[in-house]
Every structure is written in structure tokens, then in C-alpha cells.
Design the sequence.
């Protein structure tokens, strides 16, 4: 082992990580070089312990570690990786991958192109070659001297450094995405939930993120929306959307449906603009909620074909709502729908608790097809029946759909009984609310999920 100091506890920790993270075994199987498993072990222990002093020896691993430790990419991650299981493991994984790819490339270049045309070796020559490679290295494996010479070649060294820099960016992004998905509403890992998640689940999530660019984007959106949610919930008294009568003002998100109609009609548009500018338009009056809701947080999410372009952003929005439920220990129900409910994808998280696998299932959910409002609302009713009072429903759609009068009466009766409130977010450029106001305390039209009006959902 080229490392000057061995730490028994660090070595034992690596053994546990090796058992929990199969990517290391996959690398060893892919790059069949002598002592590649030792290189991975040494690199991980160097990152986790912070020990980078090497014992000089005539070995390939010594040459590789020496170059790794002096690389700019390693230096950028080394300090943060000390004592950090996730970052040490991710860095080892991606930098070992670079090492394997670079060795393969260099070894292939060192092999003569016309090797198949060389005269066959005699039995005596084969015996000598076998004895010369008794350490396990194949005839196409670079020696320490050859490797050192390659690192002295500007072109080969530049290729090595470029590959490391690319993986550096990947490690930083994946590590950040893991944090964004796991940290809840806290501002950092140390103050949030990410550090409480078992390292095996963190590593599994990191592996999923590394191979799924769409999931990385969802994680980034989730991070942004969690920040919005954190800011929206700073005050102890949170506005609710429950109708407590009417008042006048010019808060666009609280305008009565009749005012929206007047704003669009040619004969009343000018009058509306005057009254809105003077704060005389009719709008809902908010009550104050002095304690957190105890009922479930139900999210009905439209996954019809027309929502596909906004789905990545929308899933980040949903994960931010899930973080709120987890913080407040409220049941969270995710109901995806299109022409019908995706019943196999409906998720119920008791007291907001969920595993990494649960979260990935929500992010990956997608149905496609048409739009049906009654099916998801009827599914929501089943959960309202079982829930404590004073819960919330967020209905997210970009479409318009008929809702029967009988269903509206049945749904509202249960909503009143369970004291639930429903916020509908009409996403995109559809300006027609249809019958959503008949079942919602508030309908907001937002162009996308970044629209400031949509942040009302984070105050529920």
C-alpha cells in the first residue's frame, strides 16, 4: 500500500462501503488491471482520511496515485471529501473510472497495430514471458517506468487532466443533487435531513442521478422550490386559502372569478383596470391559520401529454411540497392522473416519511394521454375520509374538463365535513378555469411553476 499511514478504522469503513456500493466491483471487473482493486481502496482511504503522503515504491499504483494527488481536480475535492462518506465514495468512483479509461486508451496505443502479423512465439519464449509476468500483469500492461514516461508526455497528460476535470464537474453536480433531494426544507445538509439518510441510500440515489440527466434536472428544480417554500413559511401565521368572505384590493392571486371574467371582456376591461389600480376589485379575504394543519396534504398532479414539457419542473415542485409534509409530519398523498388515475403510481407517505426509492418513484411517474378531473378527485376523497381534519388539496393541471353537478355536490360536502381546502393551479396558457372554481377555494393561473403566484401552495 503506497499510503504512508494506514488507519484501521478507515480501512474497515471502506470495507463496509465496498459492500454497499457495487460500482467499485463493476469497475474492477471492467478494467482487468493488476491491483486495480487496491488502487480504488487506496484512493478512497486517502480521500476519506485526508492522508496523501506516499511511500515511494516501484509500482503502477504509486505512479497513478502520485499523479492523482497532484491533479487540480483532486485538490479541489480533497478537503471537502475528508470525513464525508458520500463525497469520498463518489470521487473515488468517478476518478477510478477515469483511471481505467485512460489506462485502456494508453495501453491500446502502446500495442502494435500489426501484432496479429507477428511470428508466433516459441514454447520457450512463452515460458519466459509467463515467468516475467508472475505478478499478474498481462503482456499489454504498462510498467511503472512506461507509465511515468507517459505522464511526462504533454498530450497524454492533458488527456488525463481533461478527463478528471470532466468527472470533477459530474461529482460536484451529483453531490449537490443528492443534497437538494434529501435535505428537506433546511438550508444545508448539516441542518437538514440528508445527513440522517443511510449512506447506502445516499449512494443508491447518487448512482441513479449519475445515469439520469432528467432526474438531475428534477433535483435542481426541487432545490429551487424548497428555497421558495422555506421563504414562504417563515412567518408563524400562515395565510390559508379558505374563503372567509370578500374584501377589496388588488392582490391578483385572490381575485374573485367574476373579476377575471371582467378583465377579459372588452366591454368591462377598462373599468376593471381602473378599479384594480385603485385597489377596489373584489377578492377573497384570507383568514389566519395559527397552527399547522393536521390533515393530509393531497396533491393531484396532471400527467397528460400536454404537461410533458413542464413535467421535470413540476416534479421538482411536487418534491418541495413533499418536503413541507415531512417537516410538519403530515400525511402526503401523491395522485398522478391523465384520462384516469395512475393507480399503481399513487403514493401515500404517512407523516411525510419516505424512502429514496419512494421519492424516485414520484419523480419517474408519467402516464400521458387525456385529462379527467373526477377520477383523481374521487381518489382524493377516499384519502379525505381517512384523514384528520384541516388538510389541503393541491390540484395541478394545464387543462379543462367537465365535472358533473352531482360529483361537485358530493365532493364539496365531504370537503366541508373534513374541513379541507383546495387550491387549483392552472399551468400554462389556458385562461379558462372551467368548473375548477366550483370545487376549489382558489384557482390560480400560472404560466409555469416558477410563477410567483404558485408559491401560495407553499403556505398551505
Sequence:
Amino acid at each position: 500500500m503506497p499510503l504512508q499511514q494506514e488507519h484501521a478504522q478507515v480501512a474497515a469503513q471502506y470495507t463496509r462501503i465496498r459492500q454497499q456500493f457495487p460500482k467499485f466491483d463493476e469497475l474492477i471487473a471492467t478494467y482487468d488491471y493488476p491491483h486495480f482493486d487496491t488502487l480504488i481502496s487506496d484512493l478512497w482511504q486517502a480521500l476519506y482520511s485526508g492522508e496523501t503522503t506516499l511511500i515511494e515504491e516501484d509500482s503502477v499504483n504509486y505512479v497513478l496515485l502520485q499523479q492523482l494527488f497532484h491533479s487540480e481536480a483532486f485538490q479541489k475535492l480533497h478537503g471537502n471529501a475528508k470525513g464525508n462518506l458520500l463525497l469520498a465514495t463518489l470521487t473515488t468512483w468517478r476518478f477510478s473510472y477515469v483511471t481505467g479509461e485512460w489506462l485502456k486508451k494508453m495501453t491500446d496505443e502502446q500495442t502494435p497495430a500489426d501484432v496479429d502479423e507477428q511470428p508466433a512465439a516459441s514454447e520457450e519464449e512463452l515460458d519466459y514471458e509467463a515467468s516475467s509476468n508472475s505478478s499478474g500483469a498481462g503482456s499489454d500492461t504498462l510498467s511503472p517506468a512506461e507509465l511515468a514516461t507517459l505522464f511526462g508526455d504533454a498530450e497524454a497528460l492533458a488527456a488525463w487532466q481533461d478527463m478528471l476535470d470532466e468527472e470533477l464537474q459530474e461529482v460536484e453536480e451529483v453531490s449537490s443533487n443528492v443534497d437538494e433531494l434529501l435535505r428537506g426544507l433546511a438550508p444545508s445538509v448539516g441542518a437538514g435531513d440528508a445527513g440522517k439518510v443511510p449512506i447506502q441510500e445516499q449512494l443508491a440515489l447518487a448512482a441513479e442521478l449519475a445515469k439520469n440527466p432528467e432526474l438531475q434536472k428534477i433535483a435542481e428544480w426541487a432545490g429551487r422550490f424548497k428555497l421558495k417554500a422555506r421563504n414562504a413559511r417563515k412567518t408563524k401565521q400562515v395565510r390559508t386559502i379558505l374563503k372567509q368572505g370578500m374584501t377589496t384590493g388588488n392582490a391578483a392571486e385572490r381575485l374573485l372569478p367574476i373579476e377575471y371574467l371582467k378583465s377579459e371582456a372588452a366591454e368591462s376591461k377598462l373599468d376593471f383596470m381602473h378599479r384594480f389600480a385603485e385597489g377596489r376589485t373584489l377578492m377573497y379575504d384570507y383568514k389566519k391559520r395559527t397552527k399547522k394543519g393536521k390533515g393530509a396534504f393531497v396533491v393531484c398532479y396532471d400527467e397528460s401529454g400536454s404537461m410533458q414539457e413542464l413535467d421535470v419542473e413540476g416534479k421538482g415542485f411536487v418534491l418541495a411540497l413533499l418536503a413541507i409534509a415531512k417537516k410538519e409530519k403530515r400525511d402526503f398523498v401523491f395522485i398522478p392522473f391523465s384520462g384516469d388515475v395512475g393507480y399503481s403510481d399513487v403514493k401515500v407517505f404517512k407523516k411525510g416519511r419516505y424512502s429514496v426509492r419512494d421519492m424516485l418513484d414520484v419523480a419517474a411517474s408519467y402516464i400521458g394521454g387525456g385529462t379527467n378531473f373526477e377520477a383523481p378527485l374521487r381518489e382524493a376523497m377516499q384519502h379525505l375520509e381517512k384523514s384528520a381534519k384541516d388538510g389541503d388539496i393541491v390540484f395541478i393541471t394545464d387543462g379543462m374538463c367537465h365535472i358533473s353537478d352531482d360529483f361537485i355536490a358530493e365532493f364539496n360536502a365531504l370537503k366541508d365535513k373534513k374541513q379541507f381546502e383546495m387550491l387549483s393551479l392552472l399551468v400554462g396558457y389556458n385562461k379558462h378555469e372551467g368548473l375548477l372554481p366550483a370545487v376549489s377555494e382558489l384557482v390560480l393561473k400560472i404560466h409555469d411553476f416558477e410563477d410567483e403566484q404558485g408559491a401560495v401552495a407553499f403556505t398551505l
Observations:
- The beta strands are 238-239, 246-249, 281-284, 288-289, 297-302, 332-337, 347-349, 392-397, 421-427, 442-446.
- The radius of gyration is 30 Å.
